[in-house]
Predict the 3D structure of the following.
Amino acid sequence: MIKAILIFNNHGKPRLIRFYEYFAEDVQQQIIRETFHLVSKRDDNVCNFLEGGSLIGGSDYKLIYRHYATLYFVFCVDSSESELGILDLIQVFVETLDKCFENVCELDLIFHMDKGGFSAAPARAVSAVKNINLPEMPRNINIGDINIKVPSLSPF
Amino acid sequence: MALKIVKGSIDRMFDKNLQDLVRGIRNHKEDEAKYISTCIDEIKQELKQDNIAVKSNAVCKLTYLQMLGYDVSWAAFNIVEVMSSSKFTYKRIGYLAASQCFHESTDVIMLTTNQIRKDLSSPNQYDTGVALTGLSCFVTPDLARDLANDIMTLMSHTKPYIRKKAVLIMYKVFLKYPESLRPAFPRMKEKLEDPDPGVQSAAVNVICELARRNPKNYLSLAPLFFKLMTSSTNNWVLIKIIKLFGALTPLEPRLGKKLIEPLTNLIHSTSAMSLLYECVNTVIAVLISLSSGMPNHSASIQLCVQKLRILIEDSDQNLKYLGLLAMSKILKTHPKSVQSHKDLILQCLDDKDESIRLRALDLLYGMVSKKNLMEIVKKLMLHVDKAEGTTYRDELLTKIIDICSQSNYQYITNFEWYISILVELTRLEGTRHGHLIASQMLDVAIRVKAIRAFAVAQMATLLDNAHLLTGNTQHSGICEVLYAAAWICGEFSEHLEDPMATLEAMLRPKVATLPGHIQAVYVQNAAKLFSTVLCGQEGAPADSKVAQETSQLLIDRLPVFVQSDNLEVQERASCILQLVKYIQKLQQKDVEVAEEVTALFAGELNPVAPKAQKKVPVPEGLDLDAWINEPPSGSESEDEGRKTKGKAVFAKEESRHTKPRYTEVDEKELAKRREVRKAEQANNPFYIKASPSSQKVYQEAVGVEHIPVVQIDLSVPLKVPDQYVKLEEERREKNKTDRKKKDKKKRREKGRQRRGDSGPESEEDITPAHMVDIVTEEMPENALPSDDDDKDPNDPHKALNIDLDKPLADSEKKLPVRTHRPDEVLKSPIEDAEGLEVTSEPKKKSRKEKKDKESKKDKEKKKKKHKQEEGEDLMEAGSEEPVQSKVTNDVAAQPPASTPEASDLDFWLSNAPVPSDPQEAAAVTDAPPASTPDAASGVAAVVPDSEPEETKSSKHKKKKQKREKDKKKKHHHHHHHSDGAREESVQNGTVEDEEPLPPMSNYALLAENSYIKMMKQDADEVCDIQGNLHDGSQVVVSVIFENKCDSFIKSMEFNVMDSLNSKLQRPEGAGPHDSLTVPFHLPPGISNEARFIFSVQSIVMPQKLKGTLTFIVKTEDSSTHEKLDFKLHFTCTSYLITTPCYSDAYAKLLESGDLKGSSLKLEGINQPFHHLLARICFHHHFSVVERIDSCASMYSRSIQGHHVCLLVKTADQTVSIDAKCDEPGLLRNVLDEIKLTFSQC
């Protein structure tokens, strides 16, 4: 199960936050801050897993993250998820955003937060995005067709 | 300026949208909070407007602010308003906001029930989708219960997009409303074979998630998952399934055997790292589960370790990390195979990535042996020295201690070395783990007697250099070490070389800056040292002067402690001060006092196990809660105060449990014990007494003032005390040569000529430096062995521990539907949202009932177990073959079929095409042919006649009992009444003591012969409610097949003659007369359900379809083809689906005048009105719209969208039904069928 998806920038500013379990707003911010603190001090060439510890959920949970340009994509998952699978999922997610916004950058998320919120939605709960059939899924991911439907919406 | 004003007014005219808000926040970086608070004010204004567009825009902005950490729960009602907007764009915003900020205690959630239900059944798939997505985030137990049925229906939606979401959300529903699991599970299982890969993987995900928490309930699904595993090419699904198998194998070792082959194949063939990794993980799990039974899997282990090594050697840090993680799992059961990769793991300790280093540390823990412990610790000490962050350094420190102390110091051969390591560790600055080191020192010193002299010497040095530890600050935890040092020096002071110097060190004025509890120990142990000094002095009576000086020293120094602000220090100090003063007086009179002073501290302190106190059994007849004296009547409040105080003291004491305690034993008892211990030690060959020679006499006491204070440079790197390592090595070398010499002698004696060295040292060759008597901790007699149950009682998954293999009782076929009280007129939510009222009462009751049920189930399980055991006994007694291979035994001894599914599984497992792995095959060669028949006959022998009739009757009995129970507790029949869903809606509103309803079943006997029985449920499910009026209509027929004979039935094929109107849906490519294979076999006594889909053209007329079932009956020596004919009767009610309807909509429908009427009169009906309604609801798929006294309106809808309305009235045993429908033919037939139903009873 994915417990939370956090996207924040290099300064720890939340850009897209999705919790699949209820936390009060202040707790959410606390979690974001701590996660940012943990993740930001790691080099780019170290591994992408972090033991969540007391942060959310306890020892069964892991933080799995990727760093793209100015954004950190952090997934908090429990032991029923495959670690490498989630890494691929993040990649898929980013590619989805890329397709939605054509060359996604941080500003897209800032200004289209509502759309992002919904493209994150399919990734929700038991990672429904998993209907993508990946021929191969090692770290240098090259995923073919993506089956997530983000309904095209009229701007507000 | 003017432009600005214009712009401002325009801003006001056109409200800010989300983009503007974001832009605004970015432009007001310096006063963001202020800007946002003005924005929130604006939003509040916008929310007051009636325009839904403005509102949704405001809510949209709120979602953004919520993300930034602002509480927006005050807008919850507005969010509900936006959710109920009919326009998708707004609805979506509403649901997004709800999913972000609603939670279980949000009270407006209960207003949403009907809105969500409406959205779920919306014709627009995106409406449904958005409702499902939102619901997943804020589903509450009430919502789950109310909507479970709707979501279950959506699981069979035509659009995979909806099916997928519905399947996923069922998981959340199960969590919140565990009662729904059993009824919904068959359909969930069905979805495992959904044609759409997305839906399939969603179902796999949900079941895996469920199974992970309660694996034993899902064992019976193993064959199905196995099939999926071997057929699926979707890596995501494969990973999940393989993970699931990892959770299942510990429960069923035979499953593991079956798995190894396909998993090994996958490992060899896949190129996806993630899949490879999960396969390796599961193989490891399998090997762990097998490790007890079959040790012969070295090839598989080798393969795993090999693959993991590749991962660890990879340059990708992620793979390296995971490799180490998996390696640590192997370590537990197969440490040998991991140990050979020690080089690699030590290499990982040097990695720049902290996570990887931590993983490598974990591995080291299991890799140490007597031989390499010193080497590894040496390496770790180097790392401690190099470590930068304190957290990592602390982690290293705890690991070093863990590694050394594991399994009761098993790997330590030289405790001197260990003590010196501990002392080295105290040099660490700013560590939090001072107390850990301290407790280790205490533990070793107390329990390893031989080491005491050495430990005391080291501790004395520590005390002497105490200023180094406390040097810079109070807050460093390392001063805890002094606590241990002081205690050890005091308690074992007879080993001290220079007790006087140590005493002096302990009484330095600087000690007063230490934490209170350490000072207390200092003071107490100063007294012990004092007694030792006296003892030593009096051996040489000439030097009574020294003794007196010592007393003077104490008298001089103790007053500092008497003034301490710590109570305990103060108390002890003043007590001891008085004592010393008294002794001094005696000394001046030249009285010998040493002996009496030592008597103060006589006796030995034994280590007490941490949990010992808790485990002292309460003696019989002792009531701890009883008053010892009658409580004084007047001073209750004061008493209360005292009690709490007492508690606090006690609690504090408890927290320091691990400290050795003074046991209060009188002198006599003590002497006796000592005698016993001595006798024991004398008989114990491993016990070497501590040499008493260390007690030396000291003539001189050094003056305090003259002690040079040496500052040790802290920047000097930590040094592993090489001397001890060297000493140890030398010793080992010596031992070896000694042994060689001996060997040589022996060889010579035997006259044999063998050449070559004895090879590398083996584990046994290393003898410990001392024969160490590690004293075990004391436990009280009769201590209860049970350990604390540390399972979390609040775990939501506990409630989901539900036996899914038990066939569904009729009562469970449908989820209970909760509607509102029938006397309360149903209204659309928009008109009156407040009208929705969820009674919480039944919920509680249902919980209670559930408990009852669970306990019942437990009992059953126990019974089953008992049965199995009996079976095993029987089996063992009956097995006459004296020599059987282990595996044969294994299989034969498996519990015989006591439950249908279990036997199914057993069959599948025992049919395992046993291992292809050559190694393994070699081990089992004689097994496979023997095992299968063996198992089969075993099954037959133990459960010879589990006839279906019998089980059925017992089921009936159970049901009856249940009903009786229900009667007793009248209000219970709200939920689990055996009669299922429909009348629930009626019953909710009826008076409580109305008599319960008779059982009803939708299953009708289809055909039966001596072999097999078919039961049909008339079209219980209809798909495609909207659109596709004439070609997409489907009817699902569930057929239960029950094997009535003692033989195995297989290759069942189901065929129906298609009519013009109805056709059996066959897979693509099959001809119109081909039969469908029933996807299961039936072992004796088993029933299973299959579903067949028919497409129907016209639903106006009832129909009969002729069909045949062919199957093969397989007995042990022969198999015969059999055939069974049946007729499928499709009634018109089969085409109706229960659809709820609001009274206002119902009124409109009747007003519209499109409907044609018809009526029916039934005479001589003498059942209560609510039974009557329940019957119509249940058998004919209607729902009650409104009920007033003996009059009710009902509604249903056909799969092709025809409305059917009924007005049912009753008076004097006469029931009149007025009906209206837009399709008169359908209506006529439905009424005929209703008439038939009532004529039958």
Chain B is about 55% helix and 10% strand. Chain B touches chain A through 75 residues (CB under 8 Å). The CA atoms of residues 190 and 749 of chain B lie 78 Å apart.
